[in-house]
Write a structure and sequence with these properties.
Oligomer: single chain
Shape: globular
Helix content: 25-40%
Structural class: alpha/beta
């Protein structure tokens, strides 16, 4: 499994994969695939979805802390000179730190967990420039909260689910296209993509 890479085709596909699954099922599934590989792809996609025009020349260092398997995995997202990079490990002096449990992080990325509601409910912990957190969302194709509803959902949620996550260029990759049966700890057996 170490040579395989996860290929999440879209946020919509990720949302479908997570729909109706418990925290335990999400954690078991991601750990079976390799939490580090899944997080690496998600943060790589975050860099590729960065919209420099929305950052308006701002720079920032943001740390993400994801609770995984009894520990914490940190990623540093750096925006500087219109370029966004994501690297594993904690930041020296982040402007903002966001902390979530793995299942909540996955739901947040898939557009199934609203940041404001997650913060109010204690699922998202912020440290640093909290006002910046809302502004930063727009840099990655997520509109400001309170946008007009579209078919019962906010435009923000619709766009988040439609955003494409860039697949890996590796010749050996596995797609998350068939989740394991509910209650099964195994990774998907089929290869697609």
């Amino acid at each position: 499994m170490a040579e395989d890479e996860i290929n999440i085709e879209s946020r919509e596909q990720l949302a479908e994969l997570l729909e109706g699954r418990s925290d335990e099922e999400i954690t078991t599934f991601v750990e079976a695939l390799g939490a580090d590989a899944v997080l690496e792809q998600i943060f790589g996609a975050m860099s590729s979805q960065f919209d420099a025009s929305k950052a308006n020349g701002q720079s920032a260092v943001v740390q993400w802390d994801i609770a995984v398997g009894g520990g914490t995995t940190s990623y540093t997202v750096t925006v500087d000179n219109g370029v966004c990079t994501a690297t594993p490990g904690p930041a020296e002096s982040p402007r903002l730190t966001l902390a979530l449990a793995l299942p909540d992080f996955m739901r947040f990325i898939a557009g199934q967990l609203d940041g404001m509601q997650a913060f109010a409910g204690g699922k998202l912990k912020l440290a640093g420039d909290m006002m910046f957190a809302t502004q930063m969302q727009t840099w990655f194709g997520v509109d400001d909260p309170g946008t007009e509803p579209v078919d019962g959902r906010t435009a923000r949620a619709v766009r988040a689910r439609q955003a494409i996550v860039t697949p890996s260029s590796s010749s050996s990759r596995r797609a998350i296209c068939n989740p394991p049966p509910r209650g099964s700890p195994s990774a998907p057996a089929s290869r697609c993509g």
